[in-house]
């Protein structure tokens, strides 16, 4: 197994509450995640649930299911069923910088099965570009 971790953060001129409201609604994923074209979240409790996504990963059609947990600063999610035995986890953390500005941090971790391990260097470059694009999209959606 080979792990790839990518992170990025942005400072956005919106309140912490506005950023959290947007990110906690996991149906919004398709509005900012470049690898996702559709997302459907289902709550199990007020703070937990799952979501299904479809989209394109490096141009290849994909779909999967993730479990999520909302928390006071954002959310975390973890894949439950993805192709090739790929495992993905990640999340967002929102922190107030001032009353009207917040810092949003995002991380994604990919556990690649042996079959995909030789692609790790290329996937890391792709994922680093994708997370930067994702955070630009988050900013656009919030402002």
Q: What's the total count of β strands? A: 7
Secondary structure class reads: alpha+beta
Unreliable spans are none
Q: What is the arithmetic mean of pLDDT?
A: 96
CATH homologous superfamily, by name?
START domain
How much helix, percentage-wise, in residues? 25-40%
Which architecture would the CATH scheme give at its second level?
2-Layer Sandwich
- Give the C-level CATH assignment: Alpha Beta
Instruction: Summarize the biggest pleated sheet.
Output: 7 strands, antiparallel
Kindly identify the CATH topology: Alpha-D-Glucose-1,6-Bisphosphate, Chain A, domain 4
Evaluate the radius of gyration: 15 Å
The number of domains = 1
**Alpha-carbon distance between the two ends:** 39 Å
Beta fraction of the residues? Answer: over 45%
Write a short abstract of this structure:
By secondary structure, the chain is α+β, with helices and mostly antiparallel strands. The protein is 25% helix and 50% strand. The longest helix has 23 residues, at 120-142.
Question: Which tags fit this structure?
Answer:
143 residues, alpha+beta, Alpha-D-Glucose-1,6-Bisphosphate, Chain A, domain 4, 25% helix
Structure description:
- The structure is a single chain.
- The chain is α+β, with helices and mostly antiparallel strands and 143 residues long.
- The protein has one domain (2-142): Alpha-D-Glucose-1,6-Bisphosphate, Chain A, domain 4, CATH 3.30.530.20.
- The protein has helices at residues 16-24, 29-32, 120-142, and strands spanning 2-12, 38-43, 48-57, 60-71, 74-81, 87-98, 101-112.
- A 7-stranded antiparallel β-sheet has the order 1-7-6-5-4-3-2.
- The longest helix is centred in the C-terminal third of the chain and has 23 residues, at 120-142.
- It is globular.
- The N and C termini lie far apart (39 Å).
- The model has no long low-confidence stretch (mean pLDDT 96).
């Amino acid at each position: 197994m080979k792990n790839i971790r990518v992170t990025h953060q942005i400072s956005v001129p919106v309140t912490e509450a506005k950023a959290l409201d947007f990110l906690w609604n996991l149906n919004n994923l398709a509005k900012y995640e470049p690898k996702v074209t559709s997302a459907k979240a289902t709550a199990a409790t007020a703070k937990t649930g799952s979501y299904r996504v479809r989209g394109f990963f490096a141009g290849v059609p994909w779909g999967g299911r993730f479990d999520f947990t909302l928390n006071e600063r954002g959310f975390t999610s973890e894949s439950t069923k993805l192709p090739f035995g790929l495992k993905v986890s990640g999340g967002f953390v929102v922190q107030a910088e001032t009353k009207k500005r917040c810092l949003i941090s995002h991380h994604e971790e990919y556990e690649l099965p042996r079959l995909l391990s030789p692609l790790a260097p290329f996937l890391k470059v792709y994922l680093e570009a994708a997370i930067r694009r994702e955070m630009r999209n988050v900013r656009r959606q919030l402002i």
